Amino acid sequence: MDLSIVVLSWNTKDLTKQCLKSIYDNVKDVAFETIVVDNGSSDGSAEMVAREFPQVKLVRNSENLGFTKGNNRGFKESGGEYVLFLNSDTIIPPVDFSPGLPRSVPGTAQSQLRKMVDKMRGDKSIGMLTPKLIYPDGEFQDEYYRKLPSITQTFWVYLAPLNKLTHKIKFLRRRFLSDLDSNKSCYADDFNIPGAAPLMSREAHEKIGGRDENIFYWLEDVDLCWSLEKAGYKLYYLADATIIHLGGQSNAMWEDLRKMLDFRRGYVYVFRKHKGKFQGFIIKWMFILNALLLVLPVFVIGLFVKQYRGKAKVFWQFVLEFSKD
């Protein structure tokens, strides 16, 4: 079998349905199987999959095991030479889809997933590949192809209010976020492969031992990139294959404190793992001091701006919890 598609679902019933429908409607030229791992959804997601997509191999977890454990569980059920880990908030477009351009004659073009599989099969040095991710309106999602993190990049991209400045100033944006030309395929030497639709070879996944289950969700994509590079594999961006990604649908359901803690815990863990304890220590205290500096001004702003009310409490709770780690 060419391909296994692992879709992780947590309370995204309608999105999961849309994703699965796009797979079966638009992928006809690849021998594939689809595995849906339901992470303890309470919205009827698993029941919908069993009812409307009986050809799917459904794995039901009794609770939300997180992104890494859920995807590892899906991999164990897979048998394809290549494995596509597809977020439930993605859509596979028709063949030769390109925003603003006419499609080619039906039956003469390759599906998006065929292009991805063929590229990896033709270049065995690639351990993981990403397609071009776009929003439904066709805009390229450049923020998902960020430079691989460093202490300097963390300072400019993840600490407020500097992060706002970095996003607005072109020089800083290109220096610390992304300078990828979305229309040119290339090896991903210095930027991150997003976690929304990475294609991995079975060999590479097994060589690094799968995803690190010490990470619940955030930064597992960076960990994968660094782990694969250490194992001798290359990463690749394939501009010729396009997948629509809505973005942030599951984590939007989490409360602010949970998101802050999970993201920064994952961030510090990955730094300690790949860059050493000293850099991990610096990153941890950068986050703590930044949150401390924000408590008072955010509290004052919250007295006048409704949307900021309660944010200062979140920052303070974060400092208390995160300093214990």
UniProtKB/TrEMBL annotation:
Origin superkingdom: Bacteria
UniProt keyword annotation of Nucleus present: no
InterPro entries, alphabetized: Glyco_trans_2-like, Nucleotide-diphossugar_trans
Record Pfam families: Glycos_transf_2 (PF00535)
Entry annotated with the keyword Transmembrane: yes
Domain Glycosyltransferase 2-like, chain residue ranges per copy: 4-100
Keywords, sorted A to Z: Membrane, Transmembrane, Transmembrane helix
Transmembrane segments: 282-305
PANTHER family with a match to the protein in the record: RHAMNOSYLTRANSFERASE WBBL
Protein name from the UniProt record: Glycosyltransferase 2-like domain-containing protein
Species classification: Bacteria, Candidatus Portnoyibacteriota
